[in-house]
Amino acid sequence: xxxxxxxxxxxxxxxxxxxxxxxxxxxxxxxxxxxxxxxxxxxxxxxxxxxxxxxxxxxxxxxxxxxxxxxxxxxxxxxxxxxxxxxxxxxxxxxxxxxxxxxxxxxxxxxxxxxxxxxxxxxxxxxxxxxxxxxxxxxxxxxxxxxxxxxxxxxxxxxxxxxxxxxxxxxxxxxxxxxxxxxxxxxxxxxxxxxxxxxxxxxxxxxxxxxxxxxxxxxxxxxxxxxxxxxxxxxxxxxxxxxxxxxxxxxxxxxxxxxxxxxxxxxxxxxxxxxxxxxxxxxxxxxxxxxxxxxxxxxxxxx
Length: 303
Hints:
The protein is 20% helix and 29% strand. By secondary structure, it is of the alpha+beta class. The chain folds into 2 domains: 18-131, Nucleoside Triphosphate Pyrophosphohydrolase; 165-302, Alpha-Beta Complex (Nucleoside Triphosphate Pyrophosphohydrolase), CATH 3.90.79. The strands form 3 sheets. Strands 1, 2, 3, 4, 5 and 6 form a 6-stranded mixed sheet that branches. Strands 10, 11, 12, 13, 14 and 15 form a 6-stranded mixed sheet that branches. A 3-stranded antiparallel sheet has the order 7-8-9, with no helix packed on it. A hairpin with a 2-residue loop joins strand 1 (37-42) and strand 2 (45-47). The model is unreliable at 1-8 (pLDDT under 50).
């Protein structure tokens, strides 16, 4: 295989094959297997193949330049190993992929679900591998274990694992579900409205976090919390837990003025126009769970 020649199929980890991670020779054996495919990530972006539609670019381990951090992502449907080769975002681009570089925000919605899952896992694991080379407890060097899924400190012997911080995100409706409350975060400068979200604090249940976050950001009290779906989101290393809830008194809605600069109640007609790209209101991209929560509510009107 010539340098940077992609394997015949995209590097999609259809099976996480987690039971194999305890094999101490797994990464070494995958490096020399002729069928192994590698997803190369740099920070939150992955290397893409050339084509009309985006796809992950799979290359052989020997074609990965420089000093990458390695992890085992799983196996393809035909049993080939899939690895991640991770580089820190601050380093120069390690190679020039034919389709450029992109992250989950840009391309996850355009990939099939299994390939999108592979991308998110590759970015999540890759950022942990490059950002946690040393023990946060004593500062000692942390040695790779479990094929990239843990590290052990050489000095104090403590084991470390990739972080996954829980965060809640909530679609809030009025009592008859005819209106949806969305807010504009200060970071978006009022150009986009979305569901309300926040991290779960130490010692909190999901329910407590939801009531606290929404009361702080939007001023409303909630009832009828209902779990909807979850989504891993590597910004920075979150597990987004999506809920729906009903505002007890819609007139209580007030932006906190710090994190949320404005909010408003939207009708289905207004959300429909925004989903089609019409009007002045921007919505989250289709790769996000916020988009799914908004669209699920909107499509109730067609039921």
